[in-house]
Write a structure and sequence with these properties.
Number of strands: 13
Order of helices and strands: EHHEHEHHEHEHEHHEEHHHEEHEEEH
Shape: globular
Number of domains: 2
Helix content: 40-55%
CATH class of the largest domain: Alpha Beta
Distance between the termini: 19 Å
Oligomer: single chain
Bound molecules: pyridoxal-5'-phosphate
Strand order of the largest sheet: 2-8-7-6-5-3-4
Radius of gyration: 20 Å
Number of helices: 14
CATH topology of the largest domain: Aspartate Aminotransferase, domain 2
Strand content: 15-25%
CATH architecture of the largest domain: 3-Layer(aba) Sandwich
Largest sheet: 7 strands, mixed
């Protein structure tokens, strides 16, 4: 048995999800005629109290479409240095939107209204025009850290005052909602656009949604086509999404609890320098100089445990719905032996 913690993207559809997919009614979504996609988009928009939603193949695409919609070439996007839009989207902000980036150095991926305020460019011909603030919740490289909603409200007020758009990369927003006991509607009120993923902690094979106002989503639909993301009978995937929203959100607390249990067994190891605070389903730990991350990943593999070296001295483990209690027990046992 392989216990795979490399990412929460490695999950396989459950029997219930597969059954929902097999039964899906489908149509051509480029003509907006796929009933399952229309239902998923409507359902998600309602959930967040937002006007409309757009189903896309990936979270990279929903983020990149949002950035393209909000900016003109030469505008500046303000985000944390560790954010997915900057680190892991192939330079897409420059490639797709011709926009510049202002990096902030936050607290485990979280930035403050104060930091953003200081980063906004003055109205000066020498400067790029600050246009968009992109937050990430939970923060991937921040170890699954969650925002304090009060800070988000401050950021929202600042963006309104300075006429900046506010986007949320909520690939794992579901985990934050469960961990902080927040509601999707709170987020729908705070952001101009939100990207959420179905393929991460919710266990779908494919799919992300972009949420926003009707006009925004209309523009986003056009850009999705230009980016090559117009899909046809993708309702099979949307049916998986509907199933996941109905069945796989509340159980996330289980992943968080598993993450805390494993993190405790890691924290006491001599070869571990520090474990980032575990707030949701991600464990990131840093090693002492005597051991490299690839070397530790290799020894975990001997125990049939897969992890991911996110840097030369940091390892990431991600909990998800294909990791059960028994696997967690085996993992803790393996760490005890290392
Ligand atoms: C995974 C992830 C995405 C989107 O990734 P895709 O693989 O393109 O779906 C976006 N943001 C964050 C924070 C992520 O972890």
């Amino acid at each position: 048995m392989i216990i795979d913690y490399r990412s929460d993207t490695v999950t396989k559809p459950s029997p219930g999800m597969l059954e929902a997919m097999m039964k899906a009614r489908v149509g051509d979504d480029v003509f907006s005629e796929d009933p399952s996609i229309n239902e998923l988009e409507q359902m998600t928009a309602t959930m967040f109290g937002m006007e409309a939603a757009l189903f896309c193949p990936s979270g990279t695409m929903t983020n990149q479409i949002a950035i393209k919609c909000h900016t003109q070439p030469g505008d500046e996007v303000v985000c944390d240095e560790s954010s997915h839009v900057y680190q892991y989207e192939g330079g897409g902000i420059a490639f797709n939107s011709g926009a510049s980036v202002k990096l902030l150095y936050g607290n485990f991926g979280r930035v403050t209204a104060e930091q953003i305020k200081a980063a906004i460019q003055p109205d000066d011909v020498h400067r790029a025009q600050s246009r968009l603030v992109a937050l990430e919740n939970t923060s991937n490289r921040g170890g699954g850290s969650c925002y304090d909603f009060e800070e988000i409200k401050k950021i929202q007020a600042l963006c309104k005052e300075k006429k900046l758009a506010l986007h949320l990369d909520g690939a794992r927003l579901w985990n934050a909602l469960i961990a902080k006991k927040e509601t999707p509607k709170q987020y729908g009120e705070a952001f101009d656009s939100i990207s959420v993923c179905l393929s991460k902690s919710l266990g779908c094979p494919v799919g992300s949604l972009l949420l926003g106002k009707n006009e925004f989503i209309k523009k986003a639909r056009r850009i999705r086509k230009v980016f090559g993301g117009g899909m046809r009978q993708a309702g099979f995937m949307a049916a998986a999404g509907i199933y996941a929203l109905q069945n796989n959100i509340d159980r996330l607390e289980e992943d968080h609890s598993h993450a805390r249990q494993i993190a405790e067994s890691i924290a006491v190891k001599k070869f571990v320098k520090l474990v980032l605070p575990v707030e949701t389903n991600i464990i990131i730990f840093e090693l002492q100089d005597t051991l490299t991350a690839p070397a530790l990943v290799a020894s975990l593999k001997e125990h049939n445990i897969l992890g991911y070296a996110i840097s030369p001295n940091r390892v990431r483990l991600v909990l998800h719905l294909d990791i059960n209690k028994e696997m967690v027990r085996k993992t803790i046992e393996a760490f005890n032996q290392l």
